[in-house]
Amino acid sequence: MSTYIFGHTNPDSDSIIGAISLAYLKNQLGEDCIPTRQGNISAETQFILDKFRADVPELKTSVAGENVYLVDFSDKAQAPKDIMQATILGIVDHHKLGDLTTDTPLECWIRPIGCTNTIIKEMYDYHNIEIPKNIAGMMLCAILSDTVIFKSPTCTKIDTKVVKELAKIAEIEDYKALGMEMFIVKSAVAGATARELTTRDYKEFEMGSSKLGVGQLEVVDLSVFDNIKNDLFEDMKKLKEEGGLHSVLILLTDIMKEGSQLLVVSDDESKIESAFECKLENSQIWLDGVLSRKKQIIPFLQPQF
Ligand code: MG
Ligand code: MG
Ligand code: MG
Asked: pTM for the complete prediction?
């Protein structure tokens, strides 16, 4: 029986590449593992897969009765609906501990560092397994993506060290240039619908008895949103209604200016204002220095609920 490895819903590059890199490691260790995904991949992830000639993992949204490893999440809200009927063999993650529980012992590699693929690199080292050149290149890209080319406050010395090691294996000299190339691909909004943009990197969280949706779009220049901000707000309202959510927040992150424009649709804006000690104007505010949802947004929202 094969074991399936996958990341969170609305998968980002870390979730997709993490499934691929962990599956390769596990297969080398004699386990029969298949990387999968819970949804469509982003243009950034497609760019990485094309560059290193790798296949898109198969789509799998139901896992009842299966053995699974989770990468890049441990929240039920980001899992397949029938996750509680699967056997979770392990979790590799770098987020807050979520609300998934297990009936059987499991392998856990959870650390407060910049990227799941950094942890997976350490797993390769721990097991003394060589990383193939193309997988090293993809892992490097995932780390550059998650750490916003080392600018994110989530980035640690371990992440930068691991990127250097992976760059050697992948024979990539200017990895920062590769990171910029990737973020330019990520910045493209032309032709995308409002829904594609609001959900491109979108996660839902249970907080107290409320549910919140928090999306993020990381771009090299915020002016790409000038003409579509109203469409984004309209779609955030729809997302909120469809999901019965208390609030939908979208971070428009400028990776060059190193901050985020926060857009808010909420039953109670004052909760968001007290979370970030700010006053919203037209349901938005510039948050200087804010790049990370997991470290600079979620921990401040949670106590409000
Ligand atoms: Mg992720
Ligand atoms: Mg990640
Ligand atoms: Mg991210």
From this structure: 0.92
- Residues paired with 152 in a beta bridge: none
**Domain 3-184: CATH architecture, name and number where available:** Alpha-Beta Complex (3.90)
Length in residues, the chain: 305
Which residues are within 5 Å of ligand 2 (an ion), measured at CB?
A: 14, 72, 116, 146
Ligand whose nearest atom lies closest to the CA of 8: 1
The pLDDT value given to residue 190: 86
Structure confidence at residue 230 as a pLDDT band (50, 70, 90):
very high
> How many Å lie between the centroid of ligand 1 and the Cα of residue 201?
8
Domain map (residue ranges) of the chain: 3-184, 194-304
The CATH code for residues 194-304 is 3.10.310.20
What is the pLDDT, as a whole number, of residue 9?
95
Mean pLDDT (whole number) for 173-187: 95
**Mean pLDDT to the nearest integer, 211-238:** 96
Using alpha carbons, select from 250, 186, 191 the residue that is nearest to residue 220.
186
**Are 3-184 and 194-304 equal in CATH topology?**
no
d(CA 57, CA 38): 10
